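The record is passed on directly below:
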Amino acid sequence: MTSSTRQRPPSVERVLAVVRARGGDAGREHAAVVRVARETIDGERARLASGSDARSVDDLADDVIAALASWGSFDPIGLAPVINATGVILHTNLGRAPWARQAIDGAVLAARGYGLLELDRASGRRGPRFHEAEEHLVALTGAEDALVITNNAAAIALTVGLAGRRGVAVARGELVEIGGGVRIPEIIRRTGARLVEVGTTNRTRVSDFEEVLADGRAAMVLRVHPSNFRIVGFTEGPEPAALAEMAHRHGALLVDDIGSGALLDTAAFGLAHEPMPDERLKAGADLVTFSGDKLVGGPQAGLIVGRADLVARIRRDPLARASRPDKVTLAALAATLALYRAGRARTDIPVWRMIAAPLDEIETRAWVLQERVGDARVSVTLLAATVGGGSLPGETLRSAGLRVTGVAADRLTSALRAGSPAVVGRVADDAVLLDLRTVDPDEDEALAGALGMALAQARRGAARRHETGR
């Protein structure tokens, strides 16, 4: 077909006329309807240029109406509900920590309307920004003051910024990449400070830090918890209290980034001990930073606790304003932290509820689920779950779940992800494993239904391939 005879799509006005005739523009802004119609025509023009057959005006109008309707209802495919059966509690690809019911309620309340975010109820004048979450942090950690910002990478950058253009001493074994390609050396350089490496990858002593503080090469010590990897064997690191005493003797600040920020002792649940913010403050750290969406179990946030004068300086930093969380995050975080103060963390915060779940209860649920699915290819199996999210590397929790064999693992996992709700498990030795430690008991019925449908779909697919000889 020559360029002179090549098919052209109908005009935008012709498509809009059909949309109007069908009432597809009712209650909608005219400019928005026109924009979608133009995008639809542009897509049709690209199709025709590739040699595809022309579609009718009616079909194109249907596309415009469908697009307007879907966006108005907002059904984000990328944020569809997922049952996490991977056995990884803080699964980064699935959004890390699920929120407690109280946190969800708080977020909805904050988002629903106006609130006294920065208004003093008594005077009617502008007051300090909503600080309930920070009050909870002070009470839980024993800090003099606290500050909440968007994430822990920003928290590290703001605290390191206190060093100005002076040196920041970091042990070589702690120059980590903390996710998304964000590296501690790069954060330090971006603040304008100078990175001063001390010690070796596997062994660093207090004396290594003292050398660079004594000769003025560094004015701050930054400890970074290597939360997403582990160095074993011939290793040594400075004791927190000894490092703090030495830093203060030389007039230097000690900032301690503990990453996941456990507010409960992980050792009480059979795991290795994760550093806790109150411990590090008692050991002499001037500031401690950690995340809100890992072991704290709340929304994504960066939490800074410690000396009041230093927190005040950070609060005045223009970058703190640029990193300030919104009202929804603050409300959800405040509700989460309140559960710790109420002694309800291990029962009401999903992360801790999963960590604390007894193995026998999980195994009982697995047997019930196997019977409910009623398929010979499904069996009960013991598993090993992990905390994930860069927390407690190498540590596992005894768990139980379902093992599915006799069906192509890639096809079954694909069918499970395509379902509603989507189910994400893991594959080992050509079997699909569904770990129940990371599945809320309220999701068991939905999981059984999703697995049954996925197995039926796999069975039909296998029958069709057999009929066609493929």
Q: What stands out?
A: The CA atoms of residues 281 and 306 lie 7 Å apart. The chain has a mean pLDDT of 92. The radius of gyration is 28 Å.
